[in-house]
Amino acid sequence: MFATAVRYHREDPWDRLDALRKAMPDTTLGFLTTGKRFITFSRTPPNLFKLAFELLRRHGVTRMWVVDPMHDMEAAMSTARLAKEAGFEEVIGGLCYTISPVHTDTYFTEKIAQFDNCDAIDSIYIKDPAGLLTPERLNTLVPSLRSGLKNKVIDELHTHCNTGLAPLTLLAGADLGLRHLHCALPPLAEGASHASALQLVNNLKARGHSVDVDSDAMQRASDALMREARLRNLPEGKPLMYDEAYYRHTLPGGVLSTTARQLREMGKEHLMPAVVDESLQVRADLGWPIVVTPFAQYIVTQAALNVMAGERYLRISDEVVDMLLGDWGPMPGPVNPELLDRVHNLPRARQRADRPEPEVPSLDELRRRFGGTLSDEDLLMRAVMPTEQMDAMITERDSRRRARASGADLGLRELAAALSDPSAPCRSVLRRVMPP
Predict the structure, then answer these.
(1) 433 has a pLDDT exceeding 50
(2) Which residues form the domain of 204?
(3) How far apart are CA 52 and CA 101, in angstroms?
(4) Does residue 327 have a pLDDT over 90?
(5) Which of 148, 341, 402, 416 is a plausible cystine mate for 113, CB 3.0–4.6 Å?
(6) Are residues 221 and 311 in the same domain?
(7) Between these two residues, 431 and 40, which has the higher pLDDT value?
(8) pLDDT tens, 7-60?
(9) Are 209 and 254 in the same domain?
(10) Same domain, 263 and 403
(11) SS (H, E, C) the chain
(12) Domains contained in the chain, number
């Protein structure tokens, strides 16, 4: 939401968050942090992480999901402690699900058990970002995970509809006692998103579960979103057909479509099937990292380099070098030793070994760099977003704020609300909307 608001809409994401809070004062707002980064594809320094958490809390977010895709549980617990220190009321530690020869029930159970005595984690959830879980797999996974826990409960399930199985998997989760099921309202449901909340409620009730939601309110909200999608000619999520091949490569749909577009722009679209096949070998050579952002992009980029060069690892991307030098923690499984030797002999690796780690600039240094009068919110976004995108967003935002302050930006909804208020001075409202 943060990067998209700035990059594509020139909107201040903090203003969006404030609008959500104002419109939904009784609704819990949550935020998900994945691994060791905030918004960017690269590592985020600890001082910026701390500032991000403090700002999220300041703007009304009270729930935090913490997950490390590499299952660096110590790092996840450090993030959880940071969230608690920032004032988050509830922190949920996540297990990031994937499939590989390494990611067995034993592996997951040993990992999740590390959360059991962490005071900063209130409960545990299963995060299935690629939609790989099946009802049968969940029925073996959840009891195994619970066997490694004495103090914490697994109470939440997050899965996607990439394989079309999410609605059934969520029902299996409810049968196993998971009380919080992640879903979405149409038109933002289905496809690569979550299961439809409306249909999920119906299915849960049909199976005999009680569901404490306002179905009429959900339907009205969905209808409003559907009208907006059709007015703006935006795509509506549709159920996907089951695709067995997805369980081979597990590449997210966005990564596949972006890679196909890039190959097409180079006139090499015919290489796409070979790149997908090569991604399986690259993932195995890298030690079976989970195929989610940013690792999915790293894997498929290296696969494309291999295919186009006609030789494996003739060129190695900087991101893969950084991965194998430990930027994201240890790989889940053994790394191909020949590849590891190649990486350690590359100039980038030698430069890193010879050069001390650069000092992380303090917030005061960043403020001097970007401008001493910046708000904390703008300072953080300046530090993690491209300058030109932030410049465009701030120009647009400040223009909107000036228009609102002068009354020139009064919209139809605000007009309707004002005219329906018996105490509103209607003539002054109309003058603001239709000045002479």
Answers:
(1) no
(2) 62-231
(3) 36
(4) no
(5) 148
(6) no
(7) 40
(8) 999 999 999 999 999 999 999 999 998 767 787 767 788 899 999 999 999 999
(9) no
(10) no
(11) CHHHHHHHHCCCHHHHHHHHHHHCCCCCCEEEEECCCCCCCCCCCHHHHHHHHHHHHHCCCCEEEEECCCCCHHHHHHHHHHHHHCCCCEEEEEEECCCCCCCCHHHHHHHHHCCCCCCCCCEEEEEECCCCCCHHHHHHHHHHHHHCCCCCCEEEEEECCCCCCHHHHHHHHHHCCCCEECCECCCCCCCCCCCEHHHHHHHHHHCCCCCCCCHHHHHHHHHHHHHHHHHCCCCCCCCCCCCCCHHHHCCCHHHHHHHHHHHHHCCCHHHHHHHHHHHHHHHHHCCCCCCCCCHHHHHHHHHHHHHHHCCCCCCCCHHHHHHHCCCCCCCCCCCCHHHHHHHHCCHHHHHHHHCCCCCCCCHHHHHHHHCCCCCHHHHHHHHHCCHHHHHHHHHHHHHHHHHHHHCCCCCHHHHHHHHCCCCCCHHHHHHHHCCC
(12) 3
Average pLDDT of span 404-430: 56
Average pLDDT, the chain: 89
What confidence tens digit (pLDDT) does each residue in 150-167 have? 999 999 999 999 999 999
- Residues 210, 332 share a domain: no
Q: Which two three-digit tokens encode residue 280?
A: 């399986």
> Is residue 85 located within the same domain as residue 164?
yes
Residues 6+ apart with CB under 8 A from 31: 56, 61, 63, 64, 65
Q: What is the mean pLDDT of residues 169-185?
A: 97
What letter represents residue 402's amino acid? Answer: R
Q: 195 and 126, same structural domain?
A: yes
* Residue 85 scores a pLDDT above 90: yes
Taking residues 177-186, what's their average pLDDT?
97
The answer to whether the beta carbons of residues 203 and 148 sit under 8 Å apart is: no
